Amino acid sequence: MLNGITENNFALPMIDLAQLSEGENHAAFYHNLRTISRDSGFFYLRGHDFSPADFAQIFANSQAFFALTAQQKQQIAMVNSAQFRGYSQVAAEYTQQKPDHREQIDIGAELEALALQADNPAYYRLQGPNQWPAALPDFKQQVLAYVDKARALSIELLRHFLIALEQPADALDELISEQTPAHLFKLIHYPASQAEQRQGVGAHKDSGILTLLIQDQVGGLQVKTENG
């Protein structure tokens, strides 16, 4: 996590990338990363290049989008996108057969859609353009700048994981295409809910290789451990 919470007095461990540039024991850093990833699978991350201004900007973008009218948000509803990009309203998604009390916008790599052939794998259709809110002219540029920075950090962190596993840092580079990246970015809003709407989003595991998270000061994320 780039910013986070604690759960039931269990403080998430910390990984500090700055340790790699301070002449400290790199072997100890990678041992710590390997142990934490195995034991909790979740940690706070510091020593990255994101600034408080970066976080303030993306929160401002998020707040501006979710403050739009329902009609404005529905103009870029996910159902309009062959690439499954765009806006999903509250209760549009279910986790463990219960509706999620959240709304969100899904944003992927901004690419041209592929000209598909009949024998192409189904996942080829996932490449393509995003949907952007017409009411927020600066939203696209600012969000994509944040996503580019998050992608760079994700690749850096992936390479550190590989070193921690005693593999070459570039062992998965063939999966990281600069021409056709396949990351997914979400802005999520959890509206205030009543007692009967306790599930913001149910317990789940994310797809993909790794996830970077940042949340505001309201908190709410819970991390399930083997002992919890």
TrEMBL record:
Isopenicillin N synthase-like Fe(2+) 2OG dioxygenase domain: residues covered: 184-225
Non-haem dioxygenase N-terminal domain span: 12-134
Pfam families in the cross-refs: 2OG-FeII_Oxy (PF03171), DIOX_N (PF14226)
Keywords carried by this UniProt record: Iron, Metal-binding, Oxidoreductase
SUPFAM superfamilies per record: Clavaminate synthase-like
Amino-acid biosynthesis recorded as keyword: no
UniProt GO molecular function: metal ion binding; oxidoreductase activity
Family affiliation: Belongs to the iron/ascorbate-dependent oxidoreductase family.
Protein name: 2-oxoglutarate-Fe(II)-dependent oxygenase superfamily protein
